[in-house]
């Protein structure tokens, strides 16, 4: 018999979530995750993926994965430290270091796992972490796991960061102090102020940690936010994911050789969890090779992003101040935002609503993620649907 306490807990809490309209019913995608997807048997223009460069369905990556399966099989066989480090993992890490312009890199099973791994390998209860209030959930969890003191910093507020860094340093309470930030903030598409952050880090001897999940493949001609600002020699930890622009799955930390050597002996997800499969490693390596050979996909992503932004703005939508292809369409009220997204879906545009508490109250938005794989026709159609729904609902 299952636990009565658990049953009660689940029944009560699920009912409460459903009553508040906060239960998320997950849609099943019945097609590959490309620019057009099928949901409930109906085709939708997909503006909700993180597949920025369209690589998730790229023929060259598919071939690399299939070849790797033929040659290496489907699994790594063991954790990396026992005998699960395949030649393919080493190749991937060498490519990543080259791509990021660092001495070395280490790969993990996901971007989320990187943050579980890397922060607590270096930080402990005698340390402090200055963390932007809009940092990703995995950064927050990684900080908590380390048991360091977490000092929340107002979003991209450099005066606040400087003040708190100064206080933390002058208190003499902490051995090490880290500053940690997303490279690109995915809700608004704004870029971290890395030049100022690094200046403050140098002034107060802070360890710098940039999670560039949404920047890699997008900024710095593809190499990411750190490269965009030319700071590859100054940022201690460069975190990335292989699941967004790279189109596969996995994560990595790039940095100095000593740091990577340390993570190989001290980061628990590396030591106690099996690495990505041969297919994942080979496909991700192929993706990085493609990005290093040509900026074609990167350029098309920006062209499409700018095209969509221009179209929505011309219609009178509030698209915020994004500095990347991420295009929020800010509707405001939570209920209207959700209804708006639902109407878009009925008309054939798949763009998700993001509301409080993920974003501040009254700034509900439908977030659009254009990719390199969208055609102008698809974007024109999406813009026309936005116009229709916007007028119908009195948003424009
Ligand atoms: C998406 C994201 C992650 C998680 O990456 P996965 O590879 O999907 O686990 C981590 N950090 C940030 C900032 C992200 O945006």
UniProtKB/TrEMBL annotation:
InterPro entries reported for this sequence: Aminotrans_II_pyridoxalP_BS, Aminotransferase_I/II_large, AON_synthase_class-II, AONS_Archaea/Firmicutes, PyrdxlP-dep_Trfase, PyrdxlP-dep_Trfase_major, PyrdxlP-dep_Trfase_small
UniProt key word Transferase: yes
Residue ranges annotated for the Aminotransferase class I/classII large domain, each copy included: 43-383
Transmembrane segments: none
EC assignment: 2.3.1.29
Top-level lineage group: Bacteria
Enzyme class: transferase
Pfam families for this protein: Aminotran_1_2
NCBIfam families in UniProt: gly_Cac_T_rel, PRK06939.1
PANTHER family: CLASS II AMINOTRANSFERASE/8-AMINO-7-OXONONANOATE SYNTHASE (PTHR13693), LD36009P (PTHR13693:SF3)
Family as reported in the entry's similarity comment: Belongs to the class-II pyridoxal-phosphate-dependent aminotransferase family.
Name of the protein described by the UniProt record: Glycine C-acetyltransferase
């Amino acid at each position: 018999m299952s636990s009565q306490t658990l049953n009660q807990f689940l029944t009560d809490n699920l009912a409460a979530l459903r009553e508040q309209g906060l239960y998320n019913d997950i849609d099943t995608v019945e097609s590959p995750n490309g620019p057009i997807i099928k949901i409930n048997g109906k085709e939708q223009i997909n503006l909700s993926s993180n597949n920025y460069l369209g690589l998730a369905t790229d023929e060259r990556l598919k071939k690399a994965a299939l070849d790797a399966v033929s040659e290496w099989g489907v699994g790594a066989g063991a954790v990396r430290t026992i005998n699960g480090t395949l030649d393919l993992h080493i190749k991937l890490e060498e490519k990543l270091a080259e791509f990021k312009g660092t001495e070395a890199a280490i790969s993990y099973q996901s971007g989320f796992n990187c943050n579980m791994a890397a922060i607590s390998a270096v930080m402990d209860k005698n340390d402090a972490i200055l963390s932007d209030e809009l940092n990703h959930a995995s950064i927050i969890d990684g900080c908590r796991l380390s048991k360091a003191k977490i000092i929340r910093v107002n979003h991209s507020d450099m005066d606040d960061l400087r003040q708190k860094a100064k206080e933390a340093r002058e208190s003499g309470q902490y051995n090490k102090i880290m500053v940690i930030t997303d490279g690109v903030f995915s809700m608004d598409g704004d870029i971290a102020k890395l030049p100022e952050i690094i200046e403050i880090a140098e002034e107060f001897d802070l360890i710098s940690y940039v999670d560039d999940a949404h920047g890699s493949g997008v900024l710095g001609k593809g190499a990411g936010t750190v490269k965009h600002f030319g700071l590859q020699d100054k940022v201690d930890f460069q975190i990335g994911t292989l699941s967004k622009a790279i189109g596969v799955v996995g994560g990595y930390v790039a940095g100095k050789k000593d740091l990577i050597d340390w993570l190989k002996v001290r980061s628990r997800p590396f030591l106690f969890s099996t690495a990505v499969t041969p297919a994942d490693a080979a496909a991700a390596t192929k993706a990085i090779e493609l990005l290093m050979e040509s900026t074609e996909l990167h350029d098309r992503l920006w062209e499409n992003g700018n095209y969509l932004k221009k179209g929505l703005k011309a219609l009178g939508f509030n698209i915020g101040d994004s500095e990347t292809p991420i295009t929020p369409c800010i509707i405001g009220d939570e209920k209207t935002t959700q209804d708006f997204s639902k109407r878009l879906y009925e008309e054939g545009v798949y763009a998700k609503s993001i509301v409080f508490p993920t974003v501040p109250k009254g700034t509900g938005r439908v977030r659009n993620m254009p990719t390199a794989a969208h055609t102008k026709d698809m974007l024109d159609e999406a813009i026309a649907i936005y116009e229709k729904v916007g007028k119908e609902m009195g948003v424009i």
